[in-house]
Amino acid sequence: MMEKIRRNERMSAMMKLLSASPNTIQTLGMFCELFGSAKSTMSEDIDLLRGVAERFGLGEIETVTGAAGGVRYRPVVSRESARRTIRDLCHELSGSERLLPGGFLYYSDILSTPGIVNRMGEILATEYYSAMPDFVLTMETKGIPVAFATANALGVPLVIARHSSKVYEGSAVNINYVSGSGNIETMSLSRRAVKENQKALIVDDFLKGGGTARGMIELMREFNVSVIGMAFVMSTVIPEKKRITGARSLMTLEVTGGETPEALVKPAEWLE
Amino acid sequence: MMEKIRRNERMSAMMKLLSASPNTIQTLGMFCELFGSAKSTMSEDIDLLRGVAERFGLGEIETVTGAAGGVRYRPVVSRESARRTIRDLCHELSGSERLLPGGFLYYSDILSTPGIVNRMGEILATEYYSAMPDFVLTMETKGIPVAFATANALGVPLVIARHSSKVYEGSAVNINYVSGSGNIETMSLSRRAVKENQKALIVDDFLKGGGTARGMIELMREFNVSVIGMAFVMSTVIPEKKRITGARSLMTLEVTGGETPEALVKPAEWLE
Q1: Do A87 and A267 touch, CB atoms closer than 8 A?
Q2: Phi then psi for A56, rounded to 5 degrees?
Q3: Which end of chain B has fewer CB atoms within 10 angstroms, the N or the C?
Q4: Chain B residues lying within 8 Å of A53, measured CB to CB
Q5: What domains can be seen in chain B, in order of their start residue?
Q6: Residue B1: its pLDDT value, please?
Q7: Which residue among A52, A141, A193 sits closest to B9, beta carbon to beta carbon?
Q8: What is the nearest CA distance from B7 to chain A, expressed in angstroms?
Q9: Global pTM?
Q10: What percent of chain B has pLDDT over 70?
Q11: Residue A69 has pLDDT above 60, yes or no
Q12: Residue among A262, A173, A270 nearest A231 (CA)
């Protein structure tokens, strides 16, 4: 016979299993079977876990009632905690060390370091749980890890638009758009990638003029998909007027002139 | 005064905090401070957590002794559990539905669905903990999510090589390589991305002839970085002879001839 499982063991295992599948409802029945416990016992465990998550700022555990009910974990980040994370990042990115010729900022390392990327994904996801996107859309390449982390936190797939249609993606929809440099570019997405009437959240690393974002919106229109939000890691202060509205970014970038230009990276207003 | 924290609460919170930063040593002192507990209490908690992780197949929790010691979580996947996951995937990918003209297989959705991708990343990471890579290297685009998940499980950064050097990446190293289609292509990586004498693990979605992988090895040579392993989601049965050796893949792909071609996707031999 199986050794009796103690409450502290059950709760620890549940915390791991719940947080490994964010924003996904797991049934009480599944946990009852796994631990050989009664539903009433599981409900007590879940109540305690909810308290733990709240007390230590580890996200939200919720019971969802109804036929498809169960328990769900969301890595919700408080505004205060998000602000602290983003302020630290801004501090690291500001100054002259990361500035490249032409006023570009080097931050590819930040965009692919798992700890930072997962955190940014959770901060962005927190803002879009209520809009219930069906998938996250990004345009290759640099924004893919953050878009993936956001999709992970939202419990939805990631969809990646590409510069050109590849033979191994099958039949594709292509659109043309005007890039930041004024060139006409192509954006491509496999027909199989999304379904009609779904809701998309656009996530990308950088917003300057908004040409690429505009392209993604048009691409979604071709699929009869509505865009419920647009989120970026960084947006430039200039140009002030973007070709899209309603975008949310984590940080803003301004490059000062003069002999030794510096990057001024600040938390976006909605975070302050 | 703070309400006393019970063992079940401490353990649940620790499980979440440990598993959120895989393969990263966290000090006992940090946990003592967070919970207001003595070191002896924390050690007992950790012993219990180690048992929970083992009993429910949730990975490994280890105590690391020495000056930089503490406790560490690794999402180690047992061979049996890995086999089950990959067999299910093979079942889903086999047949004619996902075959595209030219014998290509559509599996972009599999490569960017968080649940599956994280699991593949954990299975691959399990094989490379002992080699202690400093970073994961991938070549844009489709392999980025799996490479990111592997880097996450290993607790190291991801580095993304690109087809052409972009102005916002700064000074870069470019190499030329012969792609699968026989074309000469360029692979580029920012000088800032890696340091001399580091160890790289290459992770990518697809291995056919091995031209791109060869290119990544040459790129690393330019940086004086050694490649400690190469891991792929899928490798083709044909050509049998690849341009690289020592690669590990999760699945193999063979396309049958005849009037209605079918994809035969099988778990790689090392998993069986």
Answers
A1: yes
A2: -105, 15
A3: N
A4: 16
A5: 7-74 (1.10.10.10), 79-271 (3.40.50.2020)
A6: 47
A7: A52
A8: 7
A9: 0.97
A10: 99
A11: yes
A12: A270
